[in-house]
Backbone:
């Protein structure tokens, strides 16, 4: 009789576990961009569209995990952080995958053009740094899940707070590459035509958004835990 | 006829004790099983002995409160008291069964207090006792203890967990190692809570029995306390393990430091209540204590809707058990028992 009540308090499922699972799925999605850009610069339209579908499926899975996380936040559940902070943090984390999906979709809108070698290299480099950014971001989220164990002792919070600027530094690096590529894209009108340039610009811009979202999510995480 | 009624009371009392052991005990030992520090068999033996000790050495005052604190049984004919005790036991038992059927968690302590009151009201209706001897003040004190005990559990566990955080977590390199040490401390804290549980909840089963046996003096005979304690221990041994197992597996969030904090807070509160002779709900106190750990930042999620359930169980249990008890008492007297 009485034990049922106890069961109810204890068995409330933590929203932090799916939160980490979500971050993992998001990271996995971003990793797929490497293959996508490879196929794109290789001029393989079929492969691009194939990968776009794969990325789309992954993004959908990430969405489902996000739903689970939200479902575990009814108003009667008490959390060790502010509920609003938590939701504000989940949003940009989710948009990391959304932006990756947008990159893939945009890439399918037009058959890939033959690009100059330096632009190819630039795109590849950009994707690598984006992946690095998101990987670092995932580490931050992992450490965050662990500080719940020590219930937000100062040293753990400090450690996580110290990791976030690394994500931001990498994001800045992506920004710089993006800037260079954008400039370079405008010079390609004679190679790929005006529409080709527009298409390339859209892809570059959306790639930049992926890293941006990771940095934003890192920032929201900072707000969430520095209140403790 | 009298002896038959008395035997019935004794049997129902033992059944109640068995029930308490089967269900309630999981509260105290769930986290030991969860921590994996002991094997299930060891847990059961340990819990059963601590319950028995608590019942024998510390439950006399609560038993006295329930047996004669609400209704002055001294001024009632012993045969009527026996019938009343039977009615009260059955009323509490019926209500708990119904509530369990509807998956409505109710407290045995609250049920038996309501049921004893029902017996008093029934006796007053019949004119056996005057209305004004029903001890309203004692009832109000008991109600107050029901309100206060979860809060006391909450505040204590909040403080204990805060201290662990501030002074132990912050001193060490890895929280993991603290948890490993606390796995063993949880054994001690669980024994403490089992002892506390025995000291308070055994009264729910044996208070009516000791009333029926004509408890006139201040002390409850030790053998009655032991009788109830054995019933609880048996309940744990025969059935409780199932419940303990389920709970142990599901408490994953309640790490040893958290379990320890909640245990110590709950046990201390319940033992204090036993000392003051207040029959309180161990479960409600434990719920308060778990929420306290949550407030101290120790849990990743706490379902607060449980508070609503507790308040419902307060509001519903007493009137319902009182009414069932009145009806049963008058019915039993009516058939000439």
Residues:
């Amino acid at each position: 009789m009485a034990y049922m009540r106890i069961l109810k308090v204890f068995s409330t499922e933590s929203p932090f576990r799916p939160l980490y699972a979500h971050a993992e799925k998001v990271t996995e999605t971003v990793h797929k961009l490497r293959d996508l850009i490879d196929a794109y610069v290789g001029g393989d339209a079929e492969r691009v569209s194939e990968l776009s579908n794969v990325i789309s499926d992954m993004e959908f899975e990430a969405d489902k995990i996000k739903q689970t996380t939200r479902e575990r936040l009814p108003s009667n559940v008490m959390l060790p952080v502010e509920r609003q902070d938590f939701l504000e943090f989940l949003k940009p984390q989710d948009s990391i995958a959304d932006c990756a999906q947008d990159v893939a979709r945009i890439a399918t809108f037009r058959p890939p053009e033959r690009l100059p070698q330096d632009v190819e290299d630039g795109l590849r480099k950009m994707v690598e740094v984006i992946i690095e950014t998101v990987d670092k971001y995932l580490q931050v989220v992992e450490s965050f899940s662990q500080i719940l164990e020590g219930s937000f002792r100062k040293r753990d919070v400090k450690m996580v707070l110290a990791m976030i600027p690394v994500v931001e530094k990498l994001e800045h690096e992506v920004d710089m590459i993006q800037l260079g590529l954008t400039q370079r894209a405008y010079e390609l009108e004679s190679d790929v035509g005006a529409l080709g340039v527009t298409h390339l610009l859209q892809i570059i811009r959306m790639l930049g958004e992926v890293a941006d979202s990771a940095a934003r999510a890192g920032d929201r995480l900072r707000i969430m835990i520095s209140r403790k | 006829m009298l002896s038959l009624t008395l035997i019935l009371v004794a049997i129902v009392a033992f059944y109640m004790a068995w029930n308490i052991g089967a269900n309630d005990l999981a509260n105290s030992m769930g986290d030991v099983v969860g921590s994996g520090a002991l094997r299930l068999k060891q847990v059961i033996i340990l819990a059963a002995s601590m319950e028995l000790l608590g019942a024998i050495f510390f439950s006399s005052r609560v038993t006295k409160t329930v047996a004669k604190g609400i209704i002055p049984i001294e001024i009632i004919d012993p045969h009527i008291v026996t019938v009343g005790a039977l009615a009260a036991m059955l009323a509490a038992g019926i209500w708990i069964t119904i509530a369990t059927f509807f998956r409505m968690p109710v407290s045995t302590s609250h049920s038996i207090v309501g049921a004893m009151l029902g017996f008093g009201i029934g006796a007053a209706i019949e004119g056996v006792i005057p209305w004004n001897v029903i001890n309203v003040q004692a009832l109000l004190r008991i109600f107050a203890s029901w309100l206060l005990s979860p809060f006391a559990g909450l505040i204590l566990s909040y403080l204990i967990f805060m201290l662990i955080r501030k002074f132990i977590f912050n001193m060490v390199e890895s929280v993991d190692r603290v948890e490993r040490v606390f796995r063993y401390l949880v054994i001690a804290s669980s024994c403490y809570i089992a002892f506390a549980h025995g000291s308070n909840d055994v009264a729910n089963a044996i208070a009516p029995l000791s009333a029926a046996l004509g408890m006139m003096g201040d002390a409850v005979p030790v053998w009655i306390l032991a009788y109830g304690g054995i019933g609880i221990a048996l309940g744990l041994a025969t059935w409780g393990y199932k419940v303990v197992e389920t709970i142990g597996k599901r408490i994953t969030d309640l790490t040893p430091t958290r379990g320890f904090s909640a245990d110590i807070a709950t046990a201390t509160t319940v033992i204090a209540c036993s000392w003051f002779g207040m029959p309180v709900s161990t479960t409600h106190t434990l719920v308060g204590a778990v929420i306290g750990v949550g407030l101290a930042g120790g849990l990743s999620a706490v379902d607060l809707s449980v508070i609503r359930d507790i308040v419902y169980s307060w509001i519903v249990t007493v009137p319902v058990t009182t009414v069932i008890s009145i009806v049963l008492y008058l019915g039993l007297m009516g058939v000439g028992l």
Observations:
- Residues 189-226 of chain A form the longest helix (38 residues).
- Residues 90 and 217 of chain A are 7 Å apart (CA to CA).
